[in-house]
Amino acid sequence: MAAPTGIDWEWATRTGGSLSKEQRRKLGLTIARTLPGDALNRARLALGRRGRGTLEFTGLRLPDSKLAVAAETEARETLTPHMLEHSFRTYYFGRVLADLDGATYDDELVYVSCLLHDLQLEHPTPGRCFAVTGAERAVAFALDAGADPARADAIGAAIAAHITPGVADDLTDPGGFVSAGARTDVIGARLSEFDRDWVAELLRRHPRHDFKRHALAAMENEAKAVPEGRIHFLVGAGFLTMIRRAQFAE
Question: Cβ(154)–Cβ(141) under 8 Å?
């Protein structure tokens, strides 16, 4: 399963993330196909069954290219504490899931995309999706940092795609990597595949800072600002309830 055809970077920049009736129908079908897997994940968590997904923190080297360092600085200077730590957790969850799936990925590209994927989430623009405005801002940032235009566009495409249902199935795609990691952190998707102690250590290193409350408020504001957008569609499909019942304390 993948995201419906046509909901891509070109569509995002052209429409600002406004869905057509047909696109909403296709997204509804995509979401319906995820329900059995999500239900199984919740059941495993309720029964206390956890997987072995981990990543060794000791000695771990994060991308340290000029672009990666600049992106981390940008994230630290512009994001609120709860969104900053969510961005780091998105990257770490994504790495473990990619390893579990045997997916290869461009570490610099996904690192930068994860750090910058929510630049605009708490600053909605009426009629234009936060993932699109954030992607455009990230592209401009990457170009200013000296990135090749094609690479900057790849970062923008990943950020614009990360809230589209279905993209998380392919972690070789940067948008899928960001989406999968963010879904784990926001709604607990695939959380049962992670080692319990490793998740606890990740939360010690990158605390949630009452993340659920902030995420719920941001999603509600985004849905109101962009009634034709993907977040409005997801809210109608029960996304806020999924955030509330994710198995994180906050």
Answer: no
Express each pLDDT in 191-213 by its tens digit.
999 999 999 999 999 999 999 99
Q: Tell me the DSSP string of 25-50.
A: HHHHHHHHHHHHHHHHHHHHHHTT--
Q: What is the pLDDT of residue 50?
A: 95
Task: Report which residue type is found at 96.
Answer: V
The answer to whether the beta carbons of residues 165 and 179 sit under 8 Å apart is no
The secondary structure of 186-244 as a DSSP string is: HH-TTGGGB-HHHHHHHHHHS--SSHHHHHHHHHHHHHHH-TTSHHHHHHHTTHHHHHH
Q: What is the pLDDT of residue 4?
A: 83
Cα–Cα distance between 108 and 141 in angstroms, integer?
15
Look up residue 183 and give its amino acid: R
Query: Can you give the pTM of this predicted structure?
Result: 0.97
Residue 1 has pLDDT above 60, yes or no: no
Cβ neighbours of 68 (radius 10 Å): 18
Instruction: Return the SS3 of 128.
Output: strand
Tell me the chain's radius of gyration from C-alpha atoms.
17
The candidate with the shortest Cα–Cα distance to 138, out of 151, 128, 125, is 151
